[in-house]
Amino acid sequence: TTHIPVIAIDGPTASGKGTVAHRVADKLGFHYLDSGALYRLTALSALRRGTSLTDEHALAKLAEHMACSFTGGDIILAHENVTDAIRAEEVGNTASRIAALPAVRQALFGLQLGFRKTPGLVADGRDMGTVIFPHAPLKVFLTASVAARAERRYKQLIEKGISANMEDLLMDLQARDDRDTHRAIAPLVPAEGAHVLDTSQMTADQAVEQVLKWYAAEVK
Ligand code: CDP
Ligand code: CDP
């Protein structure tokens, strides 16, 4: 599978990774991996089963034996559609806590490699370019100011009819950035050779255009 191209898109929360990766995959007809969803699924399973968030071994087992599938934009866990449930703030925070555990990351490693199928893959997360697909021909590090990202999350929540508080959002966002950036294993940093794209002043479509341009230059 090493000849199958991968576009790795990493960055902090609400930088637009999911939106941009998804659109780039659509444009190129590539598969799409939302690696954060795997950590969220593990977190949701743990919360529901009451698994202790410090029991690394039990959490890794959960991650390894998760019966999940991704079909037509829906995320299924043990026959239940959890597409919306995994987006809850509590699940995101729990995901970022258990993502710091080496055994959990190890348990999700093979699952992620399996998404690499012809004709290609766009993968988004925190360590796509650094750990999972270090030989990806194109690596992008998407970022945006904390204010811009909090604003984006706020809008997303309001559009979904969920009430949101800007101050809480800012605090959550900074706490998660801090945890993801400073953890010992697979911390959030631009991969070697990654193109860094600050999208604070860009629309999602402009970011998509830039990524497609870089990719075209790469495969030329
Ligand atoms: O996956 P990640 O948490 O990085 O971000 P997302 O879930 O894709 O959310 C980003 C939100 O900001 C979406 O509502 C996008 O439409 C919007 N947005 C963006 O993604 N990129 C921009 N340059 C501007 C806005
Ligand atoms: O959408 P958002 O950027 O807020 O989060 P996500 O991509 O769904 O990921 C949720 C959490 O999982 C992140 O805060 C990370 O701690 C963790 N994660 C990770 O450690 N490695 C990845 N490749 C993807 C997510």
TrEMBL record:
**Subcellular localization(s) per the UniProt record:** Cytoplasm
- The UniProt record lists the EC number as 2.7.4.25
* Reactions performed catalytically: CMP + ATP = CDP + ADP; dCMP + ATP = dCDP + ADP
Name the domain of life this protein comes from. Answer: Bacteria
* GO MF annotation list: ATP binding; dCMP kinase activity
Q: Which amino acid positions bind ATP, per UniProt?
A: G11, P12, T13, A14, S15, G16, K17, G18, T19
Q: Which GO terms describe its cellular component?
A: cytosol
**Where does it primarily localize?**
cytoplasm
Pfam families hit by this protein: Cytidylate_kin
Domain annotation Cytidylate kinase: ranges: 7-214
Q: What InterPro entries does the entry give?
A: Cytidylate_kin (IPR003136), Cytidylate_kinase_dom (IPR011994), P-loop_NTPase (IPR027417)
Matching Gene3D superfamilies: P-loop containing nucleotide triphosphate hydrolases
CDD domains assigned: CMPK
Enzyme class, spelled out = transferase
Tell me which UniProt keywords the record has, alphabetically.
Answer: ATP-binding, Cytoplasm, Kinase, Nucleotide-binding, Transferase
> Could you provide one GO biological process annotation from this protein's UniProt record?
pyrimidine nucleotide metabolic process
Q: Which NCBIfam families match?
A: cmk
Family the entry assigns: Belongs to the cytidylate kinase family. Type 1 subfamily.
Q: Note the HAMAP family from the entry.
A: Cytidyl_kinase_type1
- Name of the protein this chain belongs to: Cytidylate kinase
Specify the species: Rugamonas apoptosis
